[in-house]
Design brief:
28% of the residues lie in helices and 33% in strands. By secondary structure, the chain is of the alpha+beta class. Strands 1-3-4-5-2 form a five-stranded antiparallel beta sheet. The relative contact order is 0.20.
């Protein structure tokens, strides 16, 4: 199966504005979830649900009226889970180049109509960059487990 990135492009709108006059972080998080969903559902061929969003890193604000590009790609698969790398870029309409504004990893699980997990096709990295991305996803899984263990007494 080909691991083709999903890419959305659109213009940020005045309805996306926060109190500081830039795009609201919640809008960016919605776009991340939408692109991740499209990527996971395309990969699995089944309805997929978000089970984890972590380490969202906002590098720079996105201005209202800029072109936004959200890219999503599978970087690791488990039995039913898909780890999706999301990068958000934007650019002024008068400029040719996009700048990276946000990055995160989002994990989806394929499910049936009753919400039971479904197996997904295993993704096998081929290029060196893909192998690095898979190793990155595995390191993040280990860190998430450490964080979850630390949080247990407070849940």
């Amino acid at each position: 199966m080909v691991n083709t990135p999903i890419s959305f492009q659109f213009i940020s709108e005045p309805s996306d504005v926060n109190y500081g006059g830039n795009v609201h972080g919640g809008s960016v998080m919605k776009w991340i979830d939408q692109a991740g969903y499209a990527c996971a559902t395309t990969w699995s061929g089944n309805y997929s649900v978000t089970v984890y969003v972590g380490g969202i890193r906002f590098y720079e604000p996105i201005k209202i009226g800029e072109i936004v590009k959200v890219e999503a790609q599978v970087i690791y698969t488990g039995t039913s889970s898909m780890h999706i790398s999301i990068n958000v870029f934007s650019r002024n309409l008068k400029q040719p180049d996009f700048d990276k504004k946000t990055h995160c990893i989002i994990v989806f699980v394929a499910v049936d109509e009753n919400g039971k997990k479904l197996p997904v096709t295993k993704w096998v990295p081929e290029t060196e960059k893909e192998k690095q991305n898979e190793a990155y996803a595995i390191r993040l899984m280990d860190l998430r487990q450490q964080i979850e263990d630390e949080m247990k007494p407070f849940l």
